Amino acid sequence: MSELKVYHSHDCDRSVLQDRHIAVVGYGSQGRAFALNLRDSGCDVTVLLRQQSTSRNVAVKEGVKTGELSDLSEFNVVIFAIPDHEQPAIYEEYFATDEVQRILVLLHGSNFHFQNIAFCENHGVILVAPHGPGRNLRETYLNGTGLSCFLAIGQDVSDTAKPIGLALADAIGAGKAGIYETTFHDEAVGDLFGEQTLLVGGLAGLTDAVFRTMVDRGIPPANAYLETIKQLKLLAAMIEEHGPAGMIERVSKTAAFGSLLAMPSLFDQTFQQRLEAIYYAIEGGQFNQLLLEEAKNDFQMYEGLLNLVKQRLSQKTSEQFQQDKEKP
Ligand SMILES: NC(=O)c1ccc[n+]([C@@H]2O[C@H](COP(=O)([O-])OP(=O)(O)OC[C@H]3O[C@@H](n4cnc5c(N)ncnc54)[C@H](OP(=O)(O)O)[C@@H]3O)[C@@H](O)[C@H]2O)c1
Asked: Which residues have any ligand 1 atom within 6 Å of their CB?
């Protein structure tokens, strides 16, 4: 049971989108899924791309209407499906002095919550944030299950923000799986913290640390891979279905008992303090500031850090196994 208010298709009135011209800015992970799902739900949707866009050919091939970024002022619903750090400059260039009433749709909360964009009063600002990557959003639309999403209202104009947000969320398929109402704060902070410490940073970091410990003590890399990375997907799926304790109950007694002993020593008080420090750096806006500076710096620090992870034996071994799998 969720304490968040959750909406389904029968709570959403799609007719509010009938006279709306919807622009999806960008045709990457989320942009493609939003555009195709909205189009297949009968919406009038156009994908807007910069002139030199490498995605235009793909969009055209997939039968999506495309236009130029400079056409933005023709649309009354604008969905920002470009990287978060690129959005403030686009808003500033096309909308800073806009006097027309529009609905701006963000797919992640940071730019509104941390005030990276000074939205005009005449712009409704809503968040429709799918709980997964664009590929998943498209696949679940096509197979009819839908992918759940968050909905938040940041700024309203003429009481249109919520009905339009619900209709859009339903039209991308989320009405089938659940549209969870939240706030920009909770989505922005929760999303960043969850990905940094568990879904992306935590998983990649713990995987590599465990792998390295085994290999440094003489266990062959292939052996270490088969004992860890190879089995991650199955165990992650069990956590989603049954929760952490439910997963532990479903593995062997040996695995379960050893894990129950290891957990408190691995995730002790100092670990908790490090987690909290990351949380407060996100909530206090320091991470947001760092990301904006890094973007201005052409992601040089990012490239250096990524290269370190690419050099790890856990990465090389994963690549080797993938190549072997693809061999005929
Ligand atoms: N990816 C996810 O799993 C996920 C999940 C939930 C929410 N979100 C949110 O969804 C939003 C979009 O993320 P994404 O991962 O889908 O983005 P993405 O795949 O990186 O976006 C790529 C698209 O953005 C365009 N683009 C990049 N910079 C641009 C600029 N300066 N001007 C115009 N177009 C530009 C690219 O154009 P070209 O074709 O010209 O290169 C491309 O079409 C973000 O707010 C993100 O936080 C993402």
From this structure: 26-31, 49-50, 53-55, 69, 81-84, 86, 90, 107-108, 129-130, 133-134
